[in-house]
Amino acid sequence: MNPLSSTHAAPYTPAARQAGASQGAVLLLGSSLTVMGAVMIAPILPKLAAEFVPADPRLAALVPLVATGPALAIALCAPLAGWLADRVGRKMLLLLATLAYGLVGAAPAWLDNLTAILVCRLALGAAEACVMTCCTTLIGDYWRGEQRVRYVNRQVVTIGVVGTVFFVLGGAAGEHSWRYPFYLYLLPILLVPAIAIVLWEPLRDGQPAEPGDGGTPLSGGQLAQTLTVGYVLICIGMISSFVAPVQMPQLMVDIGQRSSTMIGAVAGAGLLSTLAGSIAWPWLRAALGRRFVNVVLLALLATGLILLARAHTVPAIVAAVVIHGFGGGMLVPNAILPLMSRLSLAMRGRGLGGFTAALYLGQFASPLVVLACAQTFGGLRAAVIAIACGTAVTALLWLLPALRSRGDD
Fold first, then answer.
1. What is the mean pLDDT of residues 385-404?
2. Which one is predicted more confidently, 245 or 16?
3. If we measure between CA atoms, which residue out of 404, 12, 354, 408 comes closest to residue 214?
4. Which residue blocks in 40-144 are alpha helix, DSSP H?
């Protein structure tokens, strides 16, 4: 049996305080702030362009960065956020970052300069990096074993649900003015008192400094290997996961379907499938083992992309995004769980900060990888197939070690 396994774990001596539903609610809502950063603004990008580009056409290149810039800022700032979480404490950093999130998030509503708006969006990404890293780290600090598994999965599901709600709210607010969606960023400030009252700081609460589930602390080489595998998996997985939702609208247009309602309906089917994958993940993990689930989810991502590239009807595209989304919904919880279990309390912030950076780096890089593949292989459909093949190869590389470790997850 693998001594590092988290399922057959040594008994854990509980900390002086026990987390419950109140702490879970605060951390799940805090985690959802990262998805709010992008989805509320996407519907108003055309209005933003109409406001600023006619006066200076050179600003056209900045408009997409208003939506994607925060993801790049998260990727760049998350390692620093993890270091700060271990250095100054998770709770204080989370409280300050949530307050900053609300202020810099809403600031563009009062600005009349696109460059200044972009700077605020990058600052928002830095705040998001701190919020996401602290929330994820605290989930690892507060819970162990199957409780941790449940909260990791609830985190992913909550992000998906909140993202759907605020996509609708952002679009509705943007019907009147491009400024209105930015006011919604003030809502998370309401979380600040709850963070101050409900949460506590594990680093200063007498909680053991070693992994709660893994028994023996990981050595430097073991830790580096565990982190590298987790970071590579999430980065490659996110590149593949974002191909379908980002490129699907153009493929719909290519087959003559230009209805925004129809494109939105297909995107909604993909989102529901992603949520279904997240909900099904605990049962699949229990039945197959975590390592083999990696093979399954990568295979589903690859299959969905191949079907998407070959689809020439709306039903075929729906089938492709549903298969693809189901695999994508299992990616984050399955990749993050071993890192939570095998990082000590003193290093968990840095380790999960690196994970957050890899996740958003993959998200930001996905359209760039598609563009590079399209130029190399001759078109969008060829690019999607190329990425599908790379994802399938990754699944095959995972297959042999997964088979060797069956029963050891």
1. 88
2. 245
3. 12
4. 45-52, 63-88, 90-106, 114-142
